[in-house]
Every structure is written in structure tokens, then in C-alpha cells.
Design goal:
Class_I_gatase-like; three-stranded mixed beta sheet; about 30% helix; single chain; C56_PfpI-like; glutamine amidotransferase; Protease I; 12 strands; Rossmann fold; alpha/beta
Length: about 190
């Protein structure tokens, strides 16, 4: 019996530090469990540093590839974990912003959790979208032109030719991972 995401490829992008541990590791595990091939790309490639609650340094994780070596055409979906340092660093990374725009232009699924939607602001792709995020990101999203913000464990918004999936915090990861799997499975 085949897995729901057998043959699907998902890219998870991070900076090299400040990543909220569970927002990286739990989607990697869950999406692989659904049968997807999941690649972790980081800004520089190599070692990435995770944190718990943005303050407690946790384990390091080896990424599979540098963002400069990734093509969006090789993947079915993009996932952006949170962590304030991770998200703030990624939003300044031209390679990450280009990847986000390439996924959007191709009409693919993009998922972001917690502070991850900050990168979507700088990529200029949230106009017309209703989403959720960590509560402190709400005003930033509204000021950047989001159609709306909701306080929900997961929000799936299909508008403007692509699907956006967002969640608030690590507590929402089960719903976040399930929504990604459903969107990618079609």
C-alpha cells in the first residue's frame, strides 16, 4: 500500500541559526512519515542551530543543501519553520525570498508557522491571503496587506492561484503537518 505522499517532494527552508526545534524536526518527521521525500535547505548549507522557545539552545541539525543549490521546480511544496531569529534572518535572504516567489508563481503549496510568515511579508506574497501566525506577527501581516488574520491552529487559504497554510505555535504542529499533507496529496 502506498503512502499518501509517495512520490512527492517537500522543501523545508531555514537560516543556519535560531530555528524553533520542533517547528523544524516535527514537520520533517511527519511529512517523511506520510511518504514524502523531504529536503532541509539552509541559507549556507551544513549545520543549523535549533532553539526551544527562542532562548534555549538545543541540538544542531545538518541541512541537506544550501538554498543557493535548490530549484523550486524540483519540489511540490515549501515549508518555513519559525523561531524569531530564523524568520528574521530568512526574510533578509535574497535566495529564500526568490524561492518563495518561485513556489507562489508556480501555484504550489507554501506553509509557514509561528514567525515564519515574516518571510512571506518580505517576499511580497501575502496580499489577498487570510492567515494565522504567532500573535505578535499579526499587525505586521495586516500592515503588509494580508486580507485577514485569524486565531486558529491552522489556516488554509487558497487564493491568487496558490495555497498558503499557516499555524501559530509548536502546539499547532499536528494540525499544521496534516494540512500540508492533505494539500500536497491533492
Amino acid at each position: 500500500m502506498s503512502s499518501p505522499l509517495s512520490g512527492k517532494k517537500i522543501l523545508v527552508i531555514t537560516s543556519n541559526t535560531g530555528i524553533e526545534r520542533d517547528e523544524l524536526l516535527k514537520p520533517l518527521e511527519a511529512l517523511r512519515g506520510y511518504g514524502a521525500t523531504v529536503t532541509h535547505g539552509s541559507s549556507k548549507g551544513g549545520t543549523t542551530q535549533t532553539f526551544v522557545g527562542d532562548t534555549e539552545k538545543d541540538k544542531t541539525v545538518e541541512s541537506d543543501v544550501a538554498l543557493s543549490d535548490v530549484l523550486s521546480s524540483d519540489f511540490d511544496a515549501l515549508v518555513i519553520p519559525g523561531g524569531t531569529v530564523n524568520a528574521d534572518t530568512l526574510r533578509q535572504d535574497a535566495g529564500a525570498l526568490k524561492l518563495i516567489n518561485d513556489f507562489v508563481k508556480a501555484g504550489k503549496t507554501v506553509a509557514a508557522i509561528c514567525h515564519g510568515p515574516w518571510t512571506l511579508i518580505d517576499a511580497g506574497v501575502i496580499q489577498g491571503k487570510t492567515l494565522t501566525s504567532y500573535k505578535s506577527v499579526r499587525i505586521d501581516l495586516e500592515n503588509a496587506g494580508a486580507a485577514g488574520w485569524v486565531d486558529a491552529e491552522v489556516k488554509v487559504c487558497k487564493a491568487n492561484g496558490w495555497t498558503l497554510i499557516t499555524s501559530r505555535t509548536p502546539d499547532d504542529l499536528p494540525a499544521f503537518n496534516d494540512a500540508i499533507a492533505k494539500a500536497v496529496a491533492g
